[in-house]
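ok so i was messing around last nite and threw this chain in just to see what happens. nothing serious, just curious
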Amino acid sequence: QVQLVESGGGLVQAGGSLRLSCVASGSIFRNAMGWYRQAPGKQRELVASITTSITSGYVTNYADSVKGRFTILRDNTKNTVYLQMNSLKPEDAAIYYCNTSPVPREWGQGTQVTVSS
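result:
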């Protein structure tokens, strides 16, 4: 059974930072992982992803809207993927989810990020 537990969200002022964490159970962590977000009235979108290979170096990709501000990291010893978010903007406010990338599986509950202007 796939289980994803996201944490680290909260309320932050514009320009501030947050670090999200996601612990994955089962075999899901053998896959490339991604952070997705869904704002009210909008479709869920992939904002960052990271591959699995440590021998050839992890490959990361970012949506243009977060490039240079967000960093995705993974710790395979802890089955955890992180999203470091800096220089947050009001438009970053959303529920953030982690999941496999590019094809997600069952969703966790997500973690709410609110950015005040």
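not much to say yet. Strands lie at 4-7, 10-13, 18-24, 33-38, 45-50, 60-62, 70-75, 80-85, 94-100, 111-116.
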